[in-house]
Design brief:
Strand order of the largest sheet: 1-2
Shape: extended
Number of strands: 6
Number of domains: 1
Oligomer: single chain
Amino acid sequence: MFKYEGCGLPNVWLLDGYKIIETAYGRAVSIENIESLHKAIGLHLVGLPRRLTGSELRFLRKELNLSQKHLGNIVGRDPQSIAIWEKTDGKLPKSAIGAENFVRVLFSEHVIGNVNVKRFLDELCDLNNHEDNEEIAFHCNEYDEWSPREYESLQA
């Protein structure tokens, strides 16, 4: 058996699906289909009939490609709260129930291929690329319907 610590969880062991190989730098481990492994770990975690631990929340958040800041914004908490929760050795505090439930549902939907959830996650991840106070403009079409337009495209 191989203790898989690379996922950030202290209690994951692999029975098979890995190879120990020799490299120029010493022994290394090659894991087959690591994406599938992480999917299986995540689905196991979201199905647990108990509260998650901090490291379990962190694993799911990272698999969703969400920063602590983004998760905090979504659940109405600051990034420091998320960081504190993720450092918790035992079960998450009651104040984290909303975030925990949100991440469980989001991960489940993401894994089954819910296109809307994938789009939502992509938009959340793109938030880093936008300025906080960017200009917004709206356009009224010939049917008197308003829609937002990017301000930069208007200046071109």
